[in-house]
Amino acid sequence: MPHDSEACGPVIRNAPTPPIMLPSPEMNVVSKFRIVQQNEIRTIDIPSNDGSS
After folding, report:
1. What's residue 47's pLDDT?
2. 3-state SS, one letter per residue, for the chain
3. Out of the domains of life, which is the source (predicted)?
4. pLDDT of 33
5. Domain boundaries, the chain
6. What is the per-residue pLDDT for 13?
7. 28 with 36: CB under 8 angstroms?
């Protein structure tokens, strides 16, 4: 577990560099895609659980 925390430290520090190079619209798309994926998984999980129950 401690390894994950240490890895997150340097990753976050280096992260600010690439995002700046990437376009703003691209970042927005990724954010929207992530939300859609999470919503889809949740919607599928709801019916899946209901049927399993």
Report:
1. 58
2. CHHHHHHHHHHHHHCCHHHHHCCHHHHHHHHHHHHHHHHHHHHHHHHHHHHHC
3. Eukaryota
4. 62
5. 23-53
6. 55
7. no
How is residue 1 written in tokens?
A: 């577990």
Note the pTM of the prediction, 2 decimals. 0.20
Q: Which residues of 24-53 are buried (b: 16+ CB within 10 A; e: fewer)?
A: eeeeeeeeeeeeeeeeeeeeeeeeeeeeee
Q: pLDDT tens across 14-53, in order?
A: 555 555 555 566 666 666 666 666 666 555 555 555 555 5
Report residue 10 as tokens.
């340097």
